[in-house]
Amino acid sequence: MLPANGVVWSLFFALGNAGEEMPWPFGLLLFGILGAAQWWNVALAVRRLHDFGRPAWWLLLYYAAPFALLVTIPYLNDDQPSQIAVALLVVSAPLVGLLELGLRRSSDGANRYGPAPGTSVDATVFD
To answer: Looking at residue 29, what is its pLDDT?
Structure first.
């Protein structure tokens, strides 16, 4: 999920910063691919959060909080220790999210979002 976004982002910026203008159809195509990959990434993260029994609002902690902290860095008045602390928070929040979403086991049994992954669900068969 994340490597696909990384490849598309790298290609998008490498071609955009190559010294020449990127042809607009190619840029639009890359932007569409990036949007689809990001949509898939968020949907997969929401599904994993539901496996733990957590609501999708937890994604704000992993995605939006680092951007909010990143905006505060220029306003810290050249206070290097606080800039380093904020930078570490900006890096650690997505890393914690990646580790939790990627390595944590789902909750045992069913939760409010449905049965645990890998369990059989009794289906009603209509004749």
So the answer is: 83
Report the alpha-carbon distance of residue 43 to residue 21 in Å, rounded.
Answer: 33
Residue 40 in domain:
yes
62 touches 93 (CB < 8 A): yes
| The total number of structural domains that make up the chain | 2
Distances (CA, A) of 37 to 24, 32, 91: 20, 9, 21
- Quote the domain boundaries for residue 45: 1-53
Model confidence pLDDT, tens digit, residues 46-99? 988 888 888 999 888 877 777 777 777 777 777 677 777 777 777 787 788 888
- Which ranges of 63-124 does DSSP label H, i.e. alpha helix? 65-72, 80-103
75 and 95: one domain? yes
The answer to whether the beta carbons of residues 66 and 89 sit under 8 Å apart is yes
Mean per-residue pLDDT of the chain: 75
pTM value > 0.85 = no
**Pair 71, 29 in one domain:** no
